[in-house]
Structure formats: structure tokens, C-alpha cells
């Protein structure tokens, strides 16, 4: 694996496990409109980014502003917890101490990120944070430009096909982790440069080059 200077991370399913509250909130939105709940497995196989595409498939007659308001309400009320994924803190700690450039690019709402990151001790781990990126392809070029990052020195790590497609769109190295929403089979369809089981494995690969 080549050596990189800049690391862009997705949040949900990559650094933290938020599937519990996300599934709970999504099911409550669907139930609100008379739709049945998803099982965990069915949700992971059907959910996709950008959010708009997912909801247009299942609730095409409901406006996104209405869906977003309901989802936020149910998410804030959910008793399901967001948990840090094993290896996340260790990797970010090493990067911070080594002054490696780290960034966040996520579709998560800004307030939800700040609340979760503060609770999990990850709030000050990034050079810069980009949240509410509903379509990350629209944001990654801005991230690169804002921070004067060279594509060949940059990697984007995520757990979904949309993350891999975003990296490919920007011309940066793509890493898929198997700790989140998409299965290995789904991720392989997007042809990432690298697939790892988790961030601990990714850390070992990075530092094996040094």
C-alpha cells in the first residue's frame, strides 16, 4: 500500500456504529406513513446514499423537508446508542500525535455529529469537518481545494458504495471498511482500491510501510 499524507473519513459505519438509532428512526418515519419496519438485514441491503434516492424509492410522495424533520425528531428521541467502532480512537490518536492531516466528510447532521463526537471524545480529532454532505461527490472537490490537498496523496475511507464512488469521482485512493452499512459484495461492485475488515487492519497496513 502506498504512503498517503491526507486521510478523509466517513463517520457512520466507518468511525462509529450508529446503525441502531438510524434504523430505529427510519422505521419510525416509515411507520408514520403506514409503511412496515425494516429488519436490520433488509435495511442494510436497501439503504443508499444520497438519502434522497433512498426515500424517493420508498416514499416518493413525501417531501424531503418533511422527511428530514420527522427523522431528526425520531433520532433525537431514540434510546438506541451510537458506539465508537474498535480501532477508531487508536488510529485518530496516532494521526493527531503525528500531525497527519485528517478530515471528516459525512452526510450526518452537524448537530448530531457534534453531540456524538463530544460524547465519544472525537470532537477535536480532525483538521476540518464537513457535515450535511448529502451527496459527497458535490463536496469532496471543495474539501480538496479548501485544504490544498493533492489527489495522489489523499485517501477516502468509508463503508458504503457512495463513499467509494465519491473517492473515484475525485480521483483519490478509495478504502472500504466492512464495519458499516454495505456488505463486502456490495462494496466489491464499486471496485474500491482496498477493502479492510476494520480500521485496526487499516492501521496495520499503513504503519507496515514505515
Keywords:
210 residues, alpha/beta, 6-stranded parallel β-sheet, two-stranded antiparallel ribbon, 8 strands, 14% strand
Mean pLDDT: 94
Strand order of the largest sheet: 5-4-1-6-7-8
Q: What's the total count of β strands?
A: 8
Q: Report the radius of gyration as a whole number of Å.
A: 17 Å
Unreliable residue runs: none
Shape call = globular
Helix content: 40-55%
Terminal Cα separation, in Å? Answer: 11 Å
Pairing-aware structural class of the strands and helices?
alpha/beta
Largest sheet: 6 strands, parallel
Percent strand equals 5-15%
Order of helices and strands: EEHHHHEHEHEHEHEHEH
Q: What is the number of helices?
A: 10
Describe the structure.
There is one protein chain. Strand 6, helix 8 and strand 7 form a beta-alpha-beta unit. The mean pLDDT is 94. This protein starts with 5 loop residues before the first strand and ends with a helix. It contains 10 helices and 8 strands. Helices cover 46% and strands 14% of the residues. The strands form 2 sheets. Strands 5-4-1-6-7-8 form a 6-stranded parallel sheet, sandwiched between helices. The longest helix is centred in the N-terminal third of the chain and has 14 residues. The protein is an alpha/beta fold. Helix 1 packs across helix 4.
Amino acid at each position: 500500500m502506498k504512503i498517503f499524507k491526507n486521510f478523509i473519513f466517513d463517520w457512520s459505519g466507518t468511525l462509529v456504529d450508529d446503525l441502531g438509532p438510524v434504523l430505529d428512526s427510519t422505521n419510525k418515519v416509515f411507520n408514520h406513513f403506514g409503511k412496515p419496519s425494516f429488519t436490520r438485514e433488509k435495511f442494510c441491503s436497501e439503504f443508499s446514499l444520497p438519502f434522497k434516492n433512498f426515500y424517493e424509492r420508498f416514499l416518493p410522495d413525501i417531501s424531503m423537508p418533511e422527511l428530514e424533520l420527522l427523522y431528526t425528531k425520531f433520532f433525537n428521541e431514540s434510546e438506541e446508542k451510537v458506539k465508537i467502532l474498535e480501532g477508531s480512537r487508536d488510529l485518530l490518536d496516532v494521526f493527531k500525535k503525528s500531525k497527519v492531516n485528517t478530515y471528516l466528510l459525512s452526510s450526518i447532521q452537524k448537530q448530531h455529529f457534534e453531540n456524538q463526537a463530544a460524547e465519544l471524545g472525537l470532537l477535536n480529532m480532525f483538521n476540518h469537518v464537513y457535515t450535511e454532505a448529502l451527496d459527497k461527490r458535490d463536496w469532496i472537490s471543495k474539501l480538496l481545494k479548501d485544504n490544498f490537498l493533492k489527489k495522489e496523496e489523499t485517501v477516502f475511507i468509508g463503508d458504503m458504495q457512495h463513499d467509494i464512488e465519491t473517492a473515484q469521482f475525485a480521483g483519490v485512493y478509495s478504502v472500504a471498511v466492512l464495519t458499516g452499512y454495505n456488505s463486502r459484495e456490495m462494496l466489491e461492485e464499486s471496485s474500491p482500491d482496498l477493502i479492510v475488515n476494520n480500521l485496526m487492519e487499516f492501521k496495520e497496513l499503513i504503519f507496515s510501510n514505515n
